């Protein structure tokens, strides 16, 4: 009977390393004499906006009654007309005060989405749309890459080498300032286009590797059954190839989420740009950047677990 391997020393080592990293961070903040202000962060996810309520008529405050968390302010008009009632959560006037038309008499409060939440949403949907278009571009380019047609194969190789050989930041600038200007594209469309073309080149090589990993006997068997080349690729080769390339595809989509932060250079208010704008007004530099990093980590971790679930599901179906 094999001896049971003891794992608690390794768990203890992991705990020691994590404690050491936390202590190092604490020592670093002490050395630079930084004062943490984590209490400022929640308001950038959601906050209660103050909405001033103005008097609809000129007159005198005749009564103020409380109803739960609200106050009903009764205004008697100067022209001795019908009294007007204004409901507010926070009253700014007292009984007997005179108000002119348009004067603030109180405030209402409304929950609104903060800039970090808005930036996170922009990052998610921007990455999703770019990834969707990139997957389509990569699939078409990958098929052209393994095509026997020299023109299609040459164009695919040129596109892949061009995109993979230049920085994404440069591609975003070229796509926005040159192609976007010529075609009169919105900055969001330009950002999605640049990201889709960038990720499409890498997906094309992943698809190519997946197709070439399928044994040629599969193709020969399909042909012997009377399938044409399109049916062979669609029903035999590609389903098997996608199962094999799912892990590298997952890594590419995770990288896309992080690479999407570069679109902030063309004034798209994603998570990174929202973080920079918050820092300029709050001066909570480390708190905001740590929060932004954790949000990226949260999104990529969820995506990683989803793709890992798909990978296991496909593995069980084999």
From TrEMBL:
The chain crosses the membrane at residues 12-29, 120-144, 156-183, 189-207, 288-310. It comes from the Bacteria. It is a multi-pass membrane protein. GO terms for molecular function: transmembrane transporter activity. Gene3D superfamilies: MetI-like. One of its GO terms (cellular component) is ATP-binding cassette (ABC) transporter complex. Its main location: membrane. Coiled coil: none annotated. It holds the Pfam family BPD_transp_1. PROSITE patterns: ABC_TM1 (PS50928). Keywords: Amino-acid transport, Cell membrane, Membrane, Transmembrane, Transmembrane helix, Transport. GO terms for biological process: amino acid transport. It is found in: Cell inner membrane; Cell membrane. The keyword Signal does not apply. Residues 120-307 form the ABC transmembrane type-1 domain. InterPro entries: AA_ABC_transptr_permease_3TM, ArtM/GltK/GlnP/TcyL/YhdX-like, MetI-like, MetI-like_sf. The keyword Cytoplasm does not apply. PANTHER family: GLUTAMINE TRANSPORT SYSTEM PERMEASE PROTEIN GLNP (PTHR30614:SF20), MEMBRANE COMPONENT OF AMINO ACID ABC TRANSPORTER (PTHR30614). Part of the binding-protein-dependent transport system for glutamine; probably responsible for the translocation of the substrate across the membrane. Belongs to the binding-protein-dependent transport system permease family. HisMQ subfamily. This is Putative glutamine transport system permease protein GlnP. It comes from Candidatus Contendobacter odensis Run_B_J11. The lineage of its organism: Bacteria, Pseudomonadati, Pseudomonadota, Gammaproteobacteria, Candidatus Competibacteraceae.
